Amino acid sequence: AQLVESGGGLVQPGGSLRLSCTDSGFTLENYPIGWFRQAPGKEREAVSCISSYAGSTYYADSVKGRFTISRDRANNTVYLQMNRLKPEDTAVYYCVLQGPPIRLGVCPKTGSAYGYWGQGTQVTVAS
């Protein structure tokens, strides 16, 4: 897989961004996909994930109600819609894919479970 993220940038607090994750080789719908983030001086954390065929989703407590993960099958893309952004959301966001074997209906919350990582996209929330 060659995951490519896009959509990051600078946004004011309260604003929105939509991150996209695409891949030219893998059919993303067939695999669990996650979004992780890492801010300077902080540990990497799982933000959200979606199981294969969108059977289930997960959100970190810090983003629940503000972020939405979704799949676009036609465009082989996974989105992370981020609303009501806060300065503490500032980080590099990574799209990750769990290769086989996978469990249907499950998406891992730990980074070590994902074998494929994108290059990351910077999200900065500041006024």
Q: Secondary structure elements and their pairing?
A:
Layout: E1 3-6, E2 9-11, E3 17-23, E4 33-38, E5 45-50, E6 57-59, E7 67-72, E8 77-82, E9 91-97, E10 116-117, E11 121-125
Parallel strand pairs: 2-11
Antiparallel strand pairs: 1-3, 3-8, 4-5, 4-9, 5-6, 7-8, 9-10, 9-11
Discrete helix count: 0
Order of helices and strands: EEEEEEEEEEE
Helix content: under 10%
Total strand count, please?
11
Mean model confidence by pLDDT: 95
Radius of gyration: 13 Å
Poorly predicted sequence stretches spanning 5 or more consecutive residues: none
* Overall spatial form: globular
Largest sheet: 7 strands, mixed
Folded structure, characterized:
This protein has 127 residues and is mostly beta strands. Strands 2, 4, 5, 6, 9, 10 and 11 form a seven-stranded mixed beta sheet that branches. The protein has a four-stranded antiparallel beta sheet with strand order 1-3-8-7, with no helix packed on it. The protein is built from no helices and eleven strands.
